[in-house]
Amino acid sequence: MDLPLRLTQFSHGGGCGCKIAPGVLEKILAKSAPGLVPKQLLVGIETADDAAVYQVNDTQAIVATTDFFMPIVDDPFDFGAIAATNAISDVYAMGGHPLFALALVGMPVDKLPVETIRRILEGGESVCARAGIPIAGGHTIDSVEPIYGLVAIGLVDPRNLKRNAGAKPGDKLVLGKPLGVGIFSAALKAGKLGADGYRAMIESTTKLNTPGPKLGKLDGVHALTDVTGFGLLGHLLEICKGSAVAARLDWNALPILPDALELARAGFTTGASRRNFAGYGDKVALPPSIDEAGKALLTDPQTSGGLLVSCRPEAVPEVLRIFAEEGFNRAAVIGEISTGEPSVRVD
């Protein structure tokens, strides 16, 4: 009897857990030549930001980004939807509005039925429809592992552009989505994630980060990014490096997916989480009360994770209102920015 085909059986790593570890990536890019940097290029590779931004006139700048990965779930429609949501998120994280997308498709065409590939694309198309943008083209290849993602193009008013640099001492940190996606994906791959957990995972990973453009218009928002493959600690450290500040996290304030810590304590963590901590753990101070499961949660790769906002304390009510208005009911204040060398302390 043939066993049912599982998309995750083809992938050595799934979702944003496929990212090259931050320490390795830093070494790869360390000696890269800067190349041509025109004055219109408002955002390039200098702070590892979410997207490139190129100004075309006083009120318009192009936001360009790309993201793709191997399956994090077995359902083809859900895989396509997660990948598309994740790619478009980088436009929102710059304070921009998406305009259109190009599909990036690599499939083992001799192993996957055409119907399965078609469902992956349909999942991506459904998310683009919710974002109000067309898929205007793309590129396909025959590959060993299934790969799907998007090039996402957007627009932002340069006055509303938000970067992962610009955080100021005294700022509060707000996180838009709960943590634990990588832990859930590890449990799913092992056949240990229940139906409720799977629904929570899909709900989180396919929720578009639509608060981004509204947050971009707030003067009180100083820095903005989304939490993806490097985990909460990794992306917060990018804010700290880009802003020349330190940060403190309140462990008890973190929004967490139901049972994520329990699953981590049962051993369902990712290799990406361990690689993440190996890459930046020397810049993190953890209290003895946080066990290995807690450390795994803080470094957990968040496929299509939430927006991370650094804002003035008096802007917090409006930031939380915007999140709630867009249906992000788990958004929470999770810490603050302080002076000091780029680092994160968890209390």
Provide structural commentary.
By secondary structure, the protein is an alpha+beta fold. It contains eleven helices and 13 strands. The protein has helices spanning 22-30, 76-92, 114-131, 181-189, 195-205, 211-216, 231-243, 260-265, 271-280, 292-299, 316-325; strands at residues 41-43, 52-55, 61-69, 97-107, 135-142, 147-156, 172-175, 221-226, 246-249, 284-285, 307-311, 332-338, 344-346. The strands form two sheets. Strands 8-11-7-12-9-13-10 form a seven-stranded mixed beta sheet, with helices on both faces. Strand 1 (41-43) and strand 2 form a beta hairpin. Helix 4 crosses helix 5 (195-205). The longest helix is centred in the middle third of the chain and has 18 residues, at 114-131. It is globular, with a radius of gyration of 19 Å.
Layout of SSEs?
Blueprint: H1 22-30, E1 41-43, E2 52-55, E3 61-69, H2 76-92, E4 97-107, H3 114-131, E5 135-142, E6 147-156, E7 172-175, H4 181-189, H5 195-205, H6 211-216, E8 221-226, H7 231-243, E9 246-249, H8 260-265, H9 271-280, E10 284-285, H10 292-299, E11 307-311, H11 316-325, E12 332-338, E13 344-346
Parallel strand pairs: 4-5, 9-13, 10-13
Antiparallel strand pairs: 1-2, 2-3, 3-6, 4-6, 7-11, 7-12, 8-11, 9-12
Helix pairs in contact: 2-3, 4-5, 7-9, 9-10
Summary, kept brief:
By secondary structure, the protein is of the alpha+beta class.
Structural category is alpha+beta
Instruction: Determine the fraction of residues in helical runs and give it as a percent range.
Output: 25-40%
> How many distinct helices?
11
What is the ordering of alpha helices and beta strands?
A: HEEEHEHEEEHHHEHEHHEHEHEE
List low-pLDDT spans: none
Oligomer: single chain
